[in-house]
Structures are given as structure tokens and as C-alpha cells.
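Appendix C: a fully annotated inverse folding record. The material below is reproduced so that readers can follow the format used throughout the book. The structure is listed first as C-alpha cells, followed by the designed sequence.
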């Protein structure tokens, strides 16, 4: 007799961001799983529906009443706080407490590679939320992704038209990166099942913390070289002055907290780099994660025809 598994409901916060959307597109194929998205406004609903969401709740992460409504009936949560958010710790404390009250069984936290670094306030904030989750009594898994390879897509025009790749730190800086598609697949492995539904062995990930990094460690000149190979043209790496970067960030609408926090991150990168192991992600995926060269070829390579 074939076992019949009940349908489970998973809430994804930060659902309309690039991480949330990538994760939802992977989760939508998991049997017996319904996806509820948390969105800031109704304008995001069509995008979420296209990605594969079954239902959307409009709520602010700072609104405990709306957040409690979003958590009603959910079995598990995948929590992604908006990037470089000044209220990350209060938001984390609130959603963890409300998840407990709602009877949520499983909580997966999207953290960051090397969170325990005080010089980077947004990393340190995630470490604080990790601690809150560890002492919450919830079943949990923590994922610590490296910076995404996809972050480079913000320079697509400059890369394709000028052949320039710019960074606000020394070109010798080495920073581990990861393909967001691999991160999303890892989320499926650890969050889609907690009692026999979905990927095999995922219940073994309860209480675990995983670094998510791609293989290899390139400096910024080597990154430019790989981009050039994929684009079939020369790409040169250049240092963008941090004052110039900051002015552009303010023009783009970033807050003072975001700008100053990211500048602190750049200074740390330049001084110490940011490295991690690809082995935990390979173990989760059951295959080697994508290299930067593979990502660049997939993204920028000349397509047949």
C-alpha cells in the first residue's frame, strides 16, 4: 500500500527578492508542499505567482499582527531578512517568537558566510539571530551562503559594452562566491522535508549549520579573466574608489546605514578576504557546486544561433 503524505505549508519571507524567488522556483516541484509567500505589497503578487507560490500574504516584517497571520497554519519557515536591514535582529527575534506561538515545527534561517565578524554589522546581526534561533526550542537549520556569483549581473552593461569589471577594494582581494541556483537547491534539500516528505535524508539536517560556497578562490583580476572568456572579449578589472561607489549608492536610494555597512564590508574584504569551504554544499547537493567559470559561461557565453 502506498503511503499518503499530508500536504505541508511552508512560509517564505523575503519572497520577492532574488533569493526568495530562486528558492520558490526550486521548491514548487516538491510533492505535497504548498508555498506561502510573505510580500511587502500587492504589486509583488504576479511575480510570486509566476514563480510558483500557492498563496501570498501581504505583511510587513515589523508588524507582529500581520506576521502572526502569515504564520497561521504553517509547518515550516524559510526566513530571508531583506539585505542589510537595520532591524534584522528585532525582526529575527519577532518571527522566531511568533513561529513558536504558531506551532511551527521547522525553521530554516538564511544567514551569511562568517557571521561572527563584528567589523561587518550586517554579519554580526545575523550571528545574533542565529543565537536566538538556537535557543528557541524550534527545530532549525542554518544556511550561511557566500556572496552570490549573480551579484556581478549588476555590472552587465559595463561588462558587455565597455569590458570593465569594477570593485571597491584591491584587485588582489579573494572572496568565496556561490551560485544562487546551488543555494536554492540546498534550501530544498534541508527545508522541504521534516518527516518523510520530499528529498531523502533531509531530516538529518535538523540542528545543522552549513557554509554554502562554490569551489575555487579567485582574485578580482582572475574573475575578470573568466568573464572575458565567457564574453569572448577582453575584460579588465578596475578599482572603483569607495567614495565614488558611495555617491552612486546614495543616488540609487540606499540608506546611510546600508552604505556605511557595505563600506565596512569592503574594508574587511580588502584586509582579510572572505573564504569558506565548498565541501558542505557539495555534500548537500550530492555533486560539485558550480565554479565561477561555469556560472560565467552559462550567463554570458555566446549562445548557438
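Designed amino acids, in order:
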Amino acid at each position: 500500500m502506498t503511503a499518503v503524505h499530508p500536504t505541508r505549508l511552508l512560509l517564505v519571507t523575503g519572497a520577492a527578492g532574488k533569493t526568495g524567488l530562486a528558492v520558490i522556483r526550486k521548491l514548487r516541484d516538491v510533492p505535497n508542499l504548498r508555498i506561502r509567500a510573505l510580500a511587502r505589497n500587492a504589486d509583488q503578487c504576479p511575480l510570486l505567482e509566476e514563480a510558483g507560490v500557492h498563496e501570498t500574504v501581504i505583511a510587513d516584517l515589523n508588524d507582529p499582527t500581520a506576521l502572526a497571520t502569515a504564520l497561521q497554519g504553517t509547518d515550516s519557515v524559510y526566513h530571508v531578512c531583506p539585505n542589510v536591514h537595520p532591524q534584522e535582529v528585532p525582526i529575527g527575534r519577532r518571527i522566531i517568537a511568533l513561529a513558536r506561538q504558531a506551532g511551527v515545527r521547522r525553521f530554516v534561517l538564511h544567514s551569511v558566510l562568517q557571521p561572527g565578524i563584528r567589523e561587518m554589522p550586517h554579519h554580526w546581526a545575523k550571528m545574533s539571530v542565529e543565537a536566538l534561533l538556537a535557543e528557541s526550542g524550534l527545530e532549525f537549520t542554518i544556511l550561511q551562503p557566500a556572496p552570490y556569483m549573480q551579484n556581478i549581473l549588476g555590472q552587465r552593461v559595463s561588462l558587455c559594452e565597455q569590458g570593465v569589471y569594477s570593485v571597491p577594494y584591491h584587485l588582489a582581494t579573494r572572496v568565496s562566491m556561490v551560485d544562487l541556483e546551488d543555494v536554492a537547491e540546498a534550501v530544498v534539500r534541508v527545508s522541504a522535508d521534516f518527516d518523510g516528505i520530499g528529498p531523502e535524508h533531509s531530516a538529518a539536517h535538523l540542528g545543522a549549520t552549513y557554509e554554502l560556497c562554490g569551489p575555487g578562490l579567485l582574485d578580482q583580476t582572475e574573475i575578470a579573466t573568466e568573464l572575458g572568456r565567457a564574453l569572448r572579449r577582453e575584460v579588465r578589472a578596475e578599482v572603483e574608489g569607495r567614495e565614488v561607489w558611495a555617491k552612486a549608492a546614495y543616488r540609487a536610494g540606499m540608506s546611510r546605514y546600508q552604505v556605511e555597512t557595505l563600506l565596512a564590508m569592503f574594508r574587511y574584504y580588502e584586509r582579510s578576504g572572505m573564504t569558506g569551504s565548498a565541501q558542505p554544499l557539495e555534500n548537500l547537493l550530492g555533486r560539485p557546486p558550480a565554479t565561477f567559470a561555469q556560472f560565467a559561461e552559462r550567463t554570458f557565453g555566446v549562445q548557438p544561433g
